[in-house]
Specification:
This protein has 220 residues and is α+β, with helices and mostly antiparallel strands. The chain has helices at residues 4-24, 42-49, 76-83, 89-92, 183-191, 194-219; strands at 54-58, 65-72, 96-102, 108-120, 123-136, 140-145, 153-162, 167-176. Strand 6 and strand 7 form a beta hairpin. The two termini are 25 Å apart.
Length: 220
């Protein structure tokens, strides 16, 4: 098990990187539009994502959305099998401590989560919420919060097959109202507004990394 110092350093490093990205990509909003990567040819897409991860702040919809992409070395079906395996999210995502699935079909699901949003030193912020999912098998899975007393969380997982369908470019796009996690989170964001997108982007990077790892392990 990792020691506290190493874990703390990793989280601070991710937050710092996310904060720099949030500042770098600051700019005016434009009209909402489809994700730009859908118009890319495969070679350009793979070059953009690279060998590690591609992350940025998307402001085209009028809100600050965290977007992260990574290449996963298995077919889209294997990745899909992991991101829709809600009951085992506690195995895939270390931030997830509890899951309850209901009303699941091939095209939709409603899932309750308890997640750690920020853990650094004495600060340990967790949140409970329920997400409604809409699924387009092995292509895209959209989600949004429901019935959570004002909590706002929405986004999508999108899978793009590459190299003859043997590999997958996995995109994760999400917006979360970090302040709705509780009074401490609201206090922190009120004092430092850029913290919200920094935490959201850092968490998005961690989620995609862990899903990639789980998919590659199960798909080989």
């Amino acid at each position: 098990m990792k020691n506290n110092f190493k874990t703390h350093s990793t989280i601070i490093g991710l937050l710092s990187a996310a904060l720099l990205m949030a500042i770098f990509y600051a700019g005016p909003c434009s009209a909402a539009q489809e994700p730009f990567w859908r118009g890319m040819d495969e070679a350009t897409l793979l070059k953009m994502v690279g060998t590690d991860k591609f992350a940025f702040i998307d402001r085209t919809s009028g809100s600050e959305r965290a977007v992260v992409a990574m290449v996963v070395d298995v077919a889209p079906g294997a990745v899909w099998g992991v991101i829709t395996d809600f009951e085992h999210y506690t195995d895939y995502l270390r931030e997830c401590s509890s899951v309850k699935v209901k009303n699941e079909t091939d095209k939709s699901a409603t899932v309750y989560f308890k997640m750690t949003l920020l853990k650094a030193g004495p600060v340990n912020l967790a949140s409970e919420y329920t997400l409604a999912y809409k699924m387009d098998k092995s292509k895209r899975m959209e989600f949004s919060s429901v019935g959570d007393n004002g909590k706002i969380l929405n986004g999508a997982w999108e899978l793009v097959p590459v190299q003859g369908g043997k590999r997958t470019v996995l995109f994760y796009d999400a917006y979360s109202d970090f302040k709705s996690a509780g009074s401490l989170a609201k206090y922190m964001v009120d004092r430092s507004p850029s913290l919200e997108i920094a935490v959201n982007l850092a968490n998005a990077m961690v989620y995609v990394e862990q899903i990639k790892r789980a998919a590659e392990k199960k798909g080989r």
